[in-house]
C-alpha cells in the first residue's frame, strides 16, 4: 500500500503508455537519407537527447514560436535537428523539404505496449490512482 503522502502516479503518454510503431526520429533519418545525408551510429540517440531537452525548455519553444511563427516553427525545429546530428549543406532548404515530407507522409500510429494494462491494474489494486 502506498504511503498516505503519495496516492497518485502521473504518466507522460508519449513513450510511456503509448509508443509509436515507427518513431518520428526514425522517419526523420529516413527523410535525411533521401537528401543524401549519412550519420554515425550515435546520431539517433544524440537527436533523442536533444529533443528531450528541447521539449523540456518552454523558453526555447516560446522563443522559436515568437521568432518564426506557427507557420515556420517545424521548419526551424527540423533545421535544429539537422544541426544537432551534424548535417551539412543547405540546412534551411533541407529542413523545409523534411517538413513537407512529414506533413505528407507521417501519420502517428501509436500502440499501447502489452504490459501497460496489467501495470495500471496492479497499481490500482494497490491503492494508486
The percent range for helix content is 55-70%
- By secondary-structure content and strand pairing, the structural class works out as mainly alpha
Order of strands, widest sheet: 1-2
Largest sheet: 2 strands, antiparallel
Q: Which regions contain 5 or more consecutive residues with pLDDT less than 50? A: none
Secondary structure: number of strands = 2
Mean pLDDT across all amino acids? 91
Total helical elements: 5
Could you give the distance between the termini?
12 Å
What fraction strand?
under 5%
- What would you call the shape? elongated
Radius of gyration: 19 Å
Subunit arrangement of the protein? single chain
Number of domains: 2
SSE order, one letter for each helix or strand: EHHHHEH
Describe what this molecule looks like in 3D.
- The protein is mainly alpha-helical and 129 residues long.
- It folds into 2 domains: 36 residues, no CATH class; 87 residues.
- Helices cover 61% and strands 3% of the residues.
- The longest helix is centred in the middle third of the chain and has 27 residues.
- The chain is elongated, with a radius of gyration of 19 Å.
- The N and C termini lie close together (12 Å).
- The relative contact order is 0.18.
- The model has no long low-confidence stretch (mean pLDDT 91).
Task: Describe what is shown at a glance.
The chain is mostly helical and 129 residues long. It has 2 domains: 1-20 and 114-129, no CATH class; 22-108.
Amino acid at each position: 500500500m502506498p504511503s498516505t503522502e503519495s496516492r497518485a502516479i502521473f504518466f507522460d503518454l508519449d513513450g510511456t503508455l503509448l509508443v509509436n510503431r515507427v518513431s518520428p526520429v526514425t522517419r526523420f533519418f529516413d527523410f535525411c537519407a533521401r537528401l543524401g545525408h549519412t550519420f554515425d551510429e550515435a546520431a539517433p540517440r544524440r537527436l533523442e537527447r536533444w529533443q528531450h531537452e528541447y521539449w523540456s525548455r518552454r523558453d526555447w519553444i516560446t522563443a522559436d514560436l515568437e521568432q518564426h511563427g506557427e507557420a515556420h516553427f517545424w521548419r526551424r525545429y527540423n533545421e535544429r535537428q539537422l544541426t544537432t546530428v551534424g548535417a551539412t549543406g543547405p540546412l534551411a532548404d533541407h529542413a523545409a523539404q523534411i517538413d513537407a515530407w512529414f506533413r505528407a507522409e507521417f501519420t502517428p500510429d501509436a500502440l499501447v505496449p502489452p504490459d501497460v494494462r496489467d501495470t495500471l491494474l496492479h497499481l490500482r489494486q494497490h491503492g494508486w490512482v
